[in-house]
Amino acid sequence: MSKEEKLPFTSHLDELRKRLIRCSIAVLIGFGISYAFKEKLFEILTYPLMQAMDTGDTLIFTGIPEAFFTFLKVSLLSGFLLAIPVIMYEFWMFVAPGLYKNEQKFMLPIVIISSLFFIGGALFGYFIVFPYGFKFLLGFASETIRPFPSMKEYLSFSAKLLLAFGFVFELPLVITFLARIGLVTVDFLKTNRKYAVLIFFVGSAILTPPDVVTQILMSVPLMILYEISIVGARIFGKKVPADDTAGSPEEDSKNTADA
After folding, report:
1. CA-CA distances (angstroms) from residue 191 to 62, 154, 184?
2. Residue 200 and residue 198: Cα distance in Å, rounded?
3. For residues 179 and 186, is the Cβ–Cβ distance under 8 A?
4. Cα angle 30, 32, 36; round to 5
5. 59, CA 20 to 30 Å: which among 89, 183, 210, 236?
6. Is the model more confident about 44 or about 180?
7. How many Å from the N-terminal Cα to the C-terminal Cα in the chain?
8. What is the pLDDT of residues 44-75, one digit of tens each?
9. What is the value of pTM for the model shown?
């Protein structure tokens, strides 16, 4: 294979490397800003849990450096969320060269919408899922069983849920984009709706804790988002010209029979 044939692939890798570096810089800047407010950020993050716990209960840390590393990680999580607009911009700009010129003009709205969807998913997890999920999980406490959640465990648990909800809320945009480039159609989405619902429940069981409440709280929004995706695919999906049916196998067979 000649150098000229390898160049497009290597140039794509170089472009990907540059965009990943920019995303990393954005996250590091967000991390630096967030670290100045690390205690307040962790207090905000733990607020839903503290509301579900009994008065006087607190989080603990079981290792000497655990609190320090927890504050580092919560700052990194906050930095990632602050960098979401930059990350979405770099992602869609990497995809943009593969689109037509008339489609590339929609990149800026797509970046804004995808950023809002991600943040909206994280906020949904924080304000809706966390209160109900924690209340359910802590409901197993009794006079002889007391919850003593640690800082490290709670951060890992909550960060996983926030990021999971952020990513799954991108579903309408991703499916609409696939419909726009012709990889999926409205009929395909409607026909496979039952399989999508099954995938949603299986995926929710993997991404959320092993309890029914949080699984339903993720699966139901996913089903709603899927229906929104169908609407988006109908409006923005790739239109098939009417004369394309002239050359279909059914039409050819009919013409042959008439002849």
Report:
1. 51, 40, 11
2. 5
3. yes
4. 110
5. 210
6. 44
7. 50
8. 999 999 999 988 889 999 999 999 999 999 99
9. 0.84
Amino acid at 88: M
**109: how many CB neighbours lie within 10 A of its CB?**
9
b (16+ CB within 10 A) / e for 42-59? beebbebbeebbeeebeb
With tokens 């609190």, the residue in question is 67
The pair of three-digit structure tokens given for residue 104, joined into one six-digit string? 């590339």
Contacts with 167 (C-beta within 8 Å, 6 or more apart), sequence order: 118, 121
| Residue 145 CB neighbours (<10 A) | 7
- Which string of b and e fits 223-259 if b means at least 16 CB within 10 Å? eebbeebbebbeeebeeeeeeeeeeeeeeeeeeeeee
Instruction: Give the residues across from 150 on adjacent strands.
Output: 60
The mean pLDDT of 149-178, rounded to a whole number, is: 93
Q: Cα–Cα distance between 120 and 77 in angstroms, integer?
A: 16
Beta carbons of 227 and 189 less than 8 angstroms apart: no
Helix/strand/coil for 148: coil
pLDDT digits (tens, 9 = 90+) for 88-102: 999 999 988 877 777
Distance CA 128, CA 122 (A): 10
For residues 157-170, average pLDDT: 94
Name residue, tokens 């006079």: 143
